[in-house]
What does this fold into?
Amino acid sequence: MGVLESNGAVVQEAKLPEGPWEAAAGTVISVEGAAAFESLIESGNAAELKLPIGIELMARALEENKVVQAARLFQQHTRWHTVRPPV
It folds into this structure.
């Protein structure tokens, strides 16, 4: 996130509500269709996830170019888009 912040982006961390984290994570996983993580979530070992499993970039209506610019900047300065979980 420091990459985006150092280039003027406003970064806000999303917090999950209090509750069973595995159930909340399972809902997110199901909705996003990330089947690669499903067995890890169901086993109750969600804490073992070491990768950022999601990032959401938002902009105002008709400012989609800002989202694309932020995503490009993030990819240029990180390697997260090349990392894949073991299958």
In short: Residues 2-82 form one domain.
